[in-house]
Every structure is written in structure tokens, then in C-alpha cells.
Design brief:
Elements (H helix, E strand, L loop, with lengths): L3 E5 L2 E3 L15 E3 L1 H17 L2 E8 L2 H12 L3 E7 L7 H13 L5 E5 L10 H9 L3 E11 L4 E7 L5 E7 L2 E5 L11 H9 L3 E5 L34 H10 L13 H14 L4
Parallel strand pairs: 1-4, 1-6, 4-5, 5-11, 6-10, 7-10
Antiparallel strand pairs: 2-3, 7-8, 8-9
Helix pairs in contact: 2-5, 3-4
């Protein structure tokens, strides 16, 4: 059994301080964590079923980072969908461009991450399945291929640690979580080797887009921090009371707190329990 598998990968950057406004200032580009889990799932298929793996990414120079990682990891082929204005793309338009390229590959399975760490829309996978007219399962933590590559049984992660088993026929689109598979370390030597491997490059222009999204990005703003409430002493307190308030943080000392030798403390606890009527 030989499978033709396509892995959709996206390059994101580490945003220090969780401020999306600073993402374009000296960014550190990495492969999206959930897409990396999808890549590891594809590499398992390559090892167990001799699958042919094609990594595909859309974007400018940042997409090269993810494709180099995939080639260094050992995928068979790579395709770079080079787009001039990646910032203007939303999930709908990204899925449309990916679908046009994937249709020519005739895949048995399409793998991608369930969300991106930059915009976190979780919409590319469902849109992609709609354009490809394929069944789609999201939040997948693992799967098994049965019936000679015609049937797929998956396990999904639910809220509060629950698990759900969902099955479908192949071909299909599967969206993996970032904790699905343990990531394999790719050495600098392998990354350099992957950067020298050939890859297919397709230039995508705005005229090539057949579908237009009805959603547009309006604004990106930093996180709104809530002011921390601080307790302060009342103006009616004396200087000594204010000092006591600042030293204790406004909390009164709890009663029935025993200090001293262990035996003396144990006797006080027993006396308190007797007074309270426990015995």
C-alpha cells in the first residue's frame, strides 16, 4: 500500500510579550507547532506505508523556513506557493489557493494543523476541505489507516480531557493538534541540506484567485491589560493603624493560630475540639 500525502505547513513567528503589533519587528520565524505535528504524522506514514509526502506552503520568504524544515525532516517533495501580499490573505483565500494547487496532486490524505499560532482562526482546514469536496476531521490527536488505505479512524481531543473516535473514508482532510506527536529534532546539518534540495515554486497573483472572501481584517490591537486593584488604608486610620495595614496587607491575623512547642499546640487543639463539642 502506497499513499500520496500532502502536508500544509505555515510559518509563524515568536511574538515576545504576546503583542501582535511587535510581530514584524525582528521576527524569529518557526514552523507552526500544530503543522509540525501534522508533518510528524506524515513521516510516520512514510515509514510504515512508504507514503509519498509533499509539503506545501504559501507566502513569501518566510515560507522557505517551513519548507526547509520539511525537506530536512525527509519529505519527498516541496511546493512553494509564492504570493506577493500574504498579509492581505485570510483563511478563506488561503484555503482557495491551497486547494487549487492540491487538486493537481490527487492526494489520498491532506494533513494540516488545527490552528495557527499567529491569528488562531482554525478555519483553513474546514475551508480547504470544502474547496476539495472532502470529509474533514479537526482536533485530531492520532489516527490509523485501515482497509488497505481506504478507511481512516481518528481520535479527537475534546474539552476537559475527553476523547472521541471518528472515522471516515479516504481521501480526507485531517487537522492535527500540536500535542499529537512528539517532534523530532532536525539538526542544523539537515536544515542546510534541506535548503539545498529543489522545490517547486508557483507564483500566485491576485488575478489567479477565483474565490473572494466576504471577511476582511479591520484592525489588530495589542492585549488590553486590566489594571490591578491595590488595597490602600483608609484616611480615617491613625498612623499606627496605617502602618499595621501596610505591613499585613489589610488582612487581619487569623484567630486560633497556635505557636510554640508541638506538645503544647496539640493540647490546645484538643481543648478547642472539646469546647466545640466534637468529643
Amino acid at each position: 500500500m502506497s499513499l500520496n500525502v500532502v502536508v500544509c505547513v505555515h510559518t509563524t513567528n515568536i511574538c515576545i510579550g504576546n503583542d501582535p503589533i511587535q510581530m514584524n519587528t525582528n521576527p524569529l520565524w518557526i514552523i507552526n507547532p500544530s503543522d509540525r505535528s501534522a508533518l510528524e504524522a506524515a513521516m510516520n506514514l512514510q515509514a510504515n506505508y512508504n507514503a509519498n509526502i509533499t509539503a506545501i506552503s504559501i507566502g513569501g520568504k518566510d515560507a522557505v523556513v517551513s519548507l526547509n524544515y520539511c525537506l530536512g525532516r525527509g519529505v519527498n517533495n516541496a511546493m512553494h506557493l509564492e504570493y506577493d501580499d500574504e498579509v492581505s490573505l485570510d483563511a478563506y483565500r488561503i484555503a482557495n489557493i491551497l486547494a487549487n494547487a492540491i487538486n493537481d496532486l490527487l492526494p489520498d490524505l491532506v494533513l494540516c494543523g488545527d490552528h495557527g499560532n499567529d491569528w488562531n482562526s482554525s478555519s483553513v482546514g474546514p475551508f480547504l476541505a470544502e474547496f476539495l469536496d472532502l470529509p474533514q476531521i479537526s482536533h485530531v490527536t492520532g489516527f490509523e489507516i485501515e482497509n488497505h488505505g481506504r478507511f481512516l479512524q481518528t481520535e479527537r481531543r475534546l474539552e476537559r480531557g475527553g476523547r472521541q473516535k471518528v472515522a471516515c473514508n479516504l481521501p480526507a482532510v485531517i487537522c492535527m493538534t500540536e500535542v499529537s506527536y512528539q517532534n523530532t529534532y532536525v539538526s542544523v546539518y539537515r536544515l542546510r541540506e534541506g535548503s539545498q534540495r529543489p522545490r517547486e515554486i508557483k507564483l500566485i497573483s491576485k488575478q489567479d484567485e477565483e474565490e473572494k472572501s466576504g471577511v476582511r481584517l479591520v484592525e489588530v490591537s495589542p492585549i488590553r491589560t486590566r489594571p490591578r486593584r491595590l488595597s490602600h488604608p483608609s484616611t480615617g486610620l491613625s498612623a499606627a493603624q496605617r502602618m499595621q495595614f501596610l505591613m499585613t496587607g489589610g488582612f487581619e491575623k487569623k484567630q486560633n493560630v497556635f505557636e510554640g512547642p508541638l506538645e503544647e499546640g496539640a493540647n490546645k487543639v484538643i481543648s478547642l475540639l472539646r469546647e466545640s463539642g466534637f468529643f
